[in-house]
Structure formats: C-alpha cells, structure tokens
Amino acid sequence: MTDDQILELYERSLVDVHRAASRLCGADRAATEELVQDTYLALVHHVREHPDEVVGVGWLVVTCRNRFLDLHRSEQRRQRREAAASTATPPTTPAPERSDDITTRLAALPALQRSAIVLRYVDDLPVGEVARLLGKSVHATESLLARGRSTLRATISSEESA
Hints:
- By secondary structure, this protein is mainly α.
- It folds into two domains: 1-99, no CATH class; 109-161, Arc Repressor Mutant, subunit A (Orthogonal Bundle).
- The protein contains seven helices and no strands.
- Helix 1 (3-25) runs antiparallel to helix 2 (29-49), helix 5 (111-122) packs antiparallel against helix 6 (127-134) and helix 5 packs across helix 7.
- The longest helix is centred in the middle third of the chain and has 29 residues, at 57-85.
- The protein starts with a helix and ends with a helix.
- InterPro entries: RNA_pol_sigma-70-like, RNA_pol_sigma-70_dom, RNA_pol_sigma70_r2, RNA_pol_sigma70_r4_t2, RNA_pol_sigma_r2, RNA_pol_sigma_r3/r4-like, WH-like_DNA-bd_sf.
- Residues 101-152 form the RNA polymerase sigma factor 70 region 4 type domain.
C-alpha cells in the first residue's frame, strides 16, 4: 500500500473504527482514543511487513477488536496478580447518567459483560467464538450474555419510567 492509499483508508475508516472502539471501551474516552491509535499503528506495522497486501475497513475493525481483547486479557491477568497480592476489591465502574445512547448503556455494564455483548450482538459472532475470544466456556459466556441483556433491559426500563 502506498502512503496515499493508507491516508485514504484512514479517512474512509475512522468513523467505523472509532465506533467499534467506543462500544468496546464504553464511556472511557481515553481508552477509546488509545485503542483507535493502536489500531492504526497496527496498520502501519502491517503495511511495512506486507507492502503488497491491501487491507480494508473490515481488517481495521477486526484488528481493533483483537487489540481490545488483548488489552482486556492483559488487564485480567494484572487484576488477578494484584488480587493474589492483596485482599483489596477491584474498583467498580460508576453508572453513567441517563442517556438514550447505546454506547452509554453499554458503558454501564461490567467490562466482561460489555465485551461479550459487543462481540455477540455488534460483531455478530457466534457464542462459541465469543467464548474462545474471552477465554471462557460456552456456558460461562451464555451466562455473561444473559446478565448483560438483563442489565441493559433494566437500564432501559428505569429510563423509560423516569
């Protein structure tokens, strides 16, 4: 790919990559921006290693998702190490203010539930693939999805009654 092709792909794909990253990261704008940057950095590295290969928007969205999952797994390992070293409980994400925006509703979910919901219903992956990507059993993934759907329904119901 030439520099002009990379720039054209960036301009054509930025909205889609940013949307995918924001759904995965929830309300954490800094994490979203970092994930988007990491995705485009991966593009540059990939093009340097495979100059004749042309990639598209789909490649970038999948790369964004894979980078998120890598970071998520790394964070889980870090939390397990800290939990083993300390009895402190991990911090919880505060509930966002009332909003009709699906990204804000997704942000209210715990990270693992949010990841499962986004992979299953936004990326339209089968439950078995979601389980594999999250490093969980199919049963555990189905449970995550059920709890995530339940939480989203409760959020929607409480906003409608308010």
